[in-house]
Write a structure and sequence with these properties.
The complex is a heterodimer.
Chain A (H helix, E strand, L loop, with lengths): L1 H31 L5 H9 L6 H12 L4 H10 L7 H25 L3 H9 L4 H12 L1 H16 L3 H7 L9 H10 L3 H33 L3
Helix pairs in contact in A: 1-5, 1-8, 1-10, 3-5, 3-9, 5-8, 5-9, 6-7, 8-11, 10-11
Chain B lengths: L1 E9 L2 E9 L3 E6 L5 H9 L5 E6 L2 E5 L4 E2 L2 H4 L2 E3 L11 H5 L8 H10 L15 H14 L5 E4 L7 H18 L3 E4 L3 H7 L2 E6 L2 E2 H14 L1
Parallel strand pairs in B: 3-9, 3-10, 7-8, 8-9
Antiparallel strand pairs in B: 1-2, 1-4, 4-5, 5-6, 10-11
The chains are: A mainly alpha, B alpha/beta.
Chain lengths: 223, 220
């Protein structure tokens, strides 16, 4: 049980770190840049919100199969399959939780008053300085919410990780799948405990999100 | 000599300004919607405009050559009606934002002159509107800009302090030898500060309208 929980935590952590790196530039582009295909990009980013996890899992599986471009390249570099591996699960989880990371950051960036950005310009700050000294501190709440939601959402995955990971004990069998197995095998004591732990993790993460949103609002009001 | 010769269109407003001015304080007055703030924003580079603009011997805009210096490089000292102080930074950090190193003496002198010294270590939310406005003024001047753009910079100040602020602004403008364009409806501002006075109406400078009229009359 703890093995599965540990894999879940590792997966959630890896996914969150990678997501923050990918989602920030994506959120920046979606918040501030106008270009053809912007709406299409927004739709693609939001797709995992409504797509059945098994559908996403199936496409990812096809994408990373050893006879695919990506899967084949991975195989030749690392000499092992990307499908049914921990790395494959991370890849799928990043796609699956993308909207949970992009949307809070995008909203936070959009909420930055234009006056602040104009002030940064007339103060002679470069784009990089403006990003580091004005935009990121102003959108800090959004970045933290994105991290907390990505982490919690990855912890709660089932369909995608089952399709892509294949539930290999000790490698790709995460807590939510372990819980399913326990119920099937009628190990109700263990199932109870694992379910409670997962509930607690989600509860803590969402409490964090709400606390940040509350504070973020106060900062926005200047307090 | 500095030269503005710009046109731009903003909704109903058609701004058309052609003026030369020395490194002096110019008070701009006019009714709401006359284009005063738009003019300042064009000079800051925050609005697009057509024409020509040179300040302190440097060309900022030359639309024939397709050149417009971005606001980051114009670096005008601005005070707008919204002070745009960043809430997570102390007042001192807000003032020196965008500059490389803190010039302690210069900062202390300005803080003293514009009466913000006791505020330096505070956060913006602890300030009154008037205090925040004085901080914005210090921030505008601290970076030694080559142009000051002040949109009613004393509007939130009590009369007694206004007088002291005017004296400070006048002496600093003289020392820095930079032009300052200041929107104001206060007669005392005009009396005590103005080296030149522009009155705007419907996007034009009034004395230009007068000149244009005399010209037309002479031609007729």
């Amino acid at each position: 049980m703890f093995e599965a929980l540990f894999i879940s935590l590792q997966l959630a952590l890896a996914t969150t770190v990678i997501l923050l790196l990918i989602a920030l530039p994506l959120a920046y582009v979606l918040a501030f840049k106008a270009f053809p295909g912007r709406t299409a990009m927004e739709v693609v980013v939001s797709l995992p919100l409504v797509l059945p996890p098994t559908v996403l899992g199936y496409f990812v599986l096809v994408m990373i199969a050893p006879d695919s471009v990506l899967g084949g390249a991975w195989q030749s570099i690392f000499d092992r399959s990307l499908a049914f591996s921990f790395s494959g699960m991370v890849f799928a989880s990043v796609l699956y939780s993308l909207p949970f990371a992009v949307q809070p950051m995008q909203q936070a960036l959009r909420a930055i008053p234009v006056n602040w950005l104009e002030m940064a310009q007339t103060q002679g700050m470069s784009a990089k300085q403006t990003l580091l000294k004005v935009m990121l501190p102003a959108a800090k709440g959004g970045v933290l919410v994105a991290a907390a939601l990505s982490f919690a959402h990855t912890m709660g995955e089932f369909g995608v990780v089952l399709m892509v990971g294949g539930s290999i004990p000790g490698e790709t069998k995460v807590a939510s799948i372990a819980l399913f197995d326990m119920v099937e095998m009628q190990q109700s004591d263990q199932a109870w405990m694992l379910a409670l732990i997962l509930l607690a993790v989600s509860f803590v993460m969402l409490s964090l999100v709400h606390a940040i949103n509350q504070r973020g609002f106060d900062v926005g009001a200047g307090r | 000599m500095n030269h503005i010769q710009i046109t731009t269109r903003m909704g109903m407003l058609e701004l058309q300004v052609d003026a030369r001015f020395s490194n002096a304080i110019i008070i701009i007055s006019g009714e709401n919607g006359a284009g005063k703030t738009t003019l300042l924003r064009c000079l800051a580079g925050l609005e697009q405009a057509e024409g020509h603009l040179s300040v302190g011997g440097e060309i900022w805009l030359d639309s024939i050559a397709g050149f417009s210096l971005p606001p980051q490089q114009r670096r005008p000292g601005c005070v707008w009606s919204d002070t745009a102080l960043l809430p997570w930074l102390s007042i001192e950090k807000n003032i020196v934002l965008g500059t490389d190193s803190v010039e302690t003496e210069w900062l202390a002198e300005l803080a003293d002159m514009f009466e913000v010294k006791p505020l330096l270590q505070r956060k913006p939310y602890m300030l009154s509107t008037g205090e925040a406005q004085r901080v914005a003024l210090v921030r505008a001047i601290y970076k030694r800009p080559s142009l000051l753009l002040l949109d009613e910079p004393f509007s939130a100040q009590a009369p007694a302090i206004r007088r002291r602020l005017r004296l400070g602004l006048k002496s600093l403008q003289g020392r820095l030898q930079i032009p300052a364009l200041m929107v104001s409806h206060d007669v005392e501002d005009a009396c005590m500060l103005a080296d030149q006075h522009w009155h705007m109406r419907q996007g034009r400078l009034l004395h230009e309208i007068a000149q244009a009229k005399t010209g037309q009359e002479m031609l007729a």
